[in-house]
Design a protein that fits this description.
Layout: E1 3-8, H1 19-35, E2 40-43, H2 57-65, E3 72-75, E4 78-79, H3 85-99, E5 105-108, H4 113-118, H5 126-142, E6 146-149, E7 154-158, E8 171-174, H6 178-187, E9 190-194, H7 200-216, E10 227-231, E11 233-234, H8 238-259, E12 265-266, E13 269-270, H9 281-287, E14 290-291, H10 293-307, E15 311-315, H11 323-347
Parallel strand pairs: 1-2, 1-15, 2-3, 4-5, 5-8, 8-9, 9-10, 10-15, 11-14
Antiparallel strand pairs: 6-7, 12-13
Helix pairs in contact: 1-11, 2-3, 6-7, 7-10, 10-11
Length: 363
């Protein structure tokens, strides 16, 4: 069956929101998610604005590992080009030593010029840097000592003292490009994509594109593991649904502005502006798994069937949406939503694709 994860962006809407509250709320949601039977919790990485206040998802992984017992934990994702690669190798190894088989490793090349400029990093070479880091990781984790001569990193004989004895942990890679999907195919990683504000038809199209990338790497078939990120909230009225969607829209507006170099800042706060092609709230309401528990279950089921997803990452708390909404959604997931999804998929087991559904599974 399909597995489920909680996705924590850790942004805020209101100026002056204490960072300790934003991060603390994420921890509380992870604990609720573990109680509700979620398989995983994921933590974003972004910098320099209220879009996301988590600069180090590995720190969140390690913190939450000490406050939970079962749930798997992972960055979604580490923006690899913003790190010194050797230090990142050591910190991943240390995290795996502390978390054991609960660590899921999400990696990405990044997409926000605003961040890259402030790290004096080159977004234009970010995908190449990610690929080289993966080669470096293979060499560093496979041997007690190693040397490396790459385009961006050159090392004399070196030992990563925190080298994981079991090698590289399960790797997930985020990105919506052919090059990223072909990388996932070549390396046996799990790709992560977002459904944005669209419905199940869009996810079916995305699956077809991913399958084409796998086929181009001589990895045919439609059963490859896939992670899908979706906004999800259980609401109790049309007004509450609309309020949640306003918060989700803000998150999408910020992401679009940061991606397209259209961000405007007032101090440390992003200015919210519509983006090109922005849908009306009514369209979002018709497409997203937001509403009563029955609606959420039906739409997530449709998403899974359309995409063949093996793992659904649920973005439950968005911008200024409330913790009461988040707790209600997580509790309803355990009592109503997941059972309904599993019943529906059991009636048509081939609809969700031929995958294991485990969050640590490899394609």
């Amino acid at each position: 069956m399909v597995s489920f994860g909680l996705f924590c962006l850790m942004g805020y809407r209101d100026r002056g929101s204490p960072v300790s509250d934003v991060l603390g709320n994420a921890v509380r949601m992870v604990q609720w998610a573990e109680e509700a039977g979620f398989e995983a919790a994921w933590f974003a990485e972004h910098h320099f604005s209220n879009y996301c206040v988590c600069p180090s998802p590995l720190l969140m992984v390690n913190h939450c590992a000490g406050l939970t017992k079962r749930i798997k934990l992972g960055p979604a994702v580490i923006v690899v080009p913003l790190y010194h690669p050797v230090r990142l190798l050591a910190e991943i190894g240390m995290t795996q030593a502390l978390c054991g088989d609960r660590l899921l490793l999400g990696l990405g090349s990044g997409y926000q010029p605003y961040e890259f400029e402030r790290f004096d990093a080159d977004l234009g070479r970010s995908k190449a840097e990610l690929e080289e880091f993966l080669a470096l990781m293979d060499r560093a984790y496979a041997n007690e000592t190693f040397t490396f001569d790459g385009d961006f990193t050159t090392l004399p004989e070196t030992c990563i003292s925190t080298r994981p004895p079991g090698g590289v942990p399960p790797i997930w890679v985020a990105g919506d490009s052919e090059s990223t999907h072909r990388l996932a195919a070549r390396r046996g990683f799990v790709p992560i994509i977002t459904g944005r504000w669209f419905g199940a038809d869009y996810l079916a199209e995305q699956r077809e594109r991913i399958n084409a990338s796998y086929a181009a790497e001589s990895m045919g078939g439609a059963a490859h593991e896939l992670g899908i990120l979706r906004f999800v909230c259980v609401t109790e009225s049309d007004e509450e649904t609309r309020d949640y969607l306003v918060n989700a829209r803000q998150q999408m507006r910020f992401a679009a502005a940061l991606r397209n170099r259209q961000e405007a800042m007032e101090g440390g706060m992003l200015v919210e502006r519509p983006f090109s092609g922005e849908p009306p709230l009514e369209e979002m309401a018709a497409n997203l798994p937001v509403g009563d528990a029955e609606t959420v279950a039906a739409r997530l089921t449709a998403d899974i069937r359309a995409s063949g997803a093996s793992h659904m990452m649920l973005n439950i708390q968005a911008a200024g949406s409330t913790m009461a909404q988040a707790e209600r959604t997580i509790r309803a997931f355990a009592s109503d939503i997941r059972p309904a999804i599993e019943r529906a998929l059991a009636e048509d087991p081939g609809a969700a694709g031929q995958h294991s559904g485990r969050p640590d599974a490899r394609p």
